[in-house]
Amino acid sequence: MDKKEMIYLDNAATTRTLPQAVQAMLPWLSDNYGNASSIYRLGEESRKVISQARRQIADSLHGEPSEIYFTSGGTEADNWALIAGAEACAFKGKHIITSKIEHHGVLHTCEYLEKRGFQVTYVGVDGNGIVNLQELEAAIRPDTILISVMFANNEIGTLQPIGEIGKLARERGILFHTDAVQAYGHLPIDVEALSIDLLSASGHKLGGPKGIGFLYVKKGTKLGAFLHGGAQEQGKRAGTENVPAIAGLGAAVAHAFSDMEGQAGKVEGLRDYLIEKIEKEIPYCRLNGHREKRLPNNVNFSFQFIEGESLLIMLDMKGICASSGSACTSGALDPSHVLLAIGLPHEIAHGSLRLTLGVDNTKEEMDRTVQAIKEIVEKLRRMSPLYEDFVKGQGSPKAAS
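^ thats the sequence. predicted structure below, dont judge the formating
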């Protein structure tokens, strides 16, 4: 199918690199190839563009340039925050708190830390995917040294009470990290107002290139080096800087924050239109995640009596790009840990679909998408013995609400 006819609805997995980001990168891929660590003019030019991007990011978070450290992406930033954060505070205790619906960049890092002698408490969420604050507060112990809760869930889009969690942590002298990979560039974030000590973000989620991200580290936070070698990134992250990618990230950040409210408003309108149309036209479906407290671009539904994998394949045949959850686990056969955490039974969780919109999507594309989903779901249900039994009144499905 011609890409011009394709409908791309998987922006949570990755976004199209913005033309502004591409243009910002090009000079640093050819003529301006100097190593930023060099003292001659060619190297100085590279240092300047790195400093400019660092300041753009710091300003967007209401932080300072010295608090921004470039990484290869969100996963590295998560690993650095959790591992170095835990190691730096290990003299005070070895207890960590996180949620059951974190991205695997956090969950698998916590599992690694457990093997190294740390204890991790995984706090539950309600049916909308919001972390239970009472359970989190009750989980805090005298030896709790680190709390990590994502800003917004990558699968169901639910926003977390980051300000309240940050306040709890700050009052008790506990390091607080948030994985803001899905939220940064799409929602306003003030690290000081929200009492955030560490924040992870990734460039390709907001129109920047892949392979670049950053970790915000609040001034005064003791965090060890993650990569050892040279003196890059204030001696914390060795290795020659990826100047083209940093320039592209800076341009993407500038674009995202130039009219964040306007872009979010447009996408929210399409999101709400899509949700309403699916609920109206397709029976036995369930919206996953909080109806209002969710990312501007996220739509996640479970459809009873079908398999999500079959739905994805058939949507792809119609030129529609979507997913069933995190791109990092798209090949897994097990149902989403996020959907199980909000209480969905396996058979309903298996029939989930995530649609994540972008500012370039249109209402006409939403209409085409709903029509395609409707046709595919009807076709798959006609092949389902469970659905046949349900229609005949010989069985009853689990509640879809």
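The mean pLDDT is 95.
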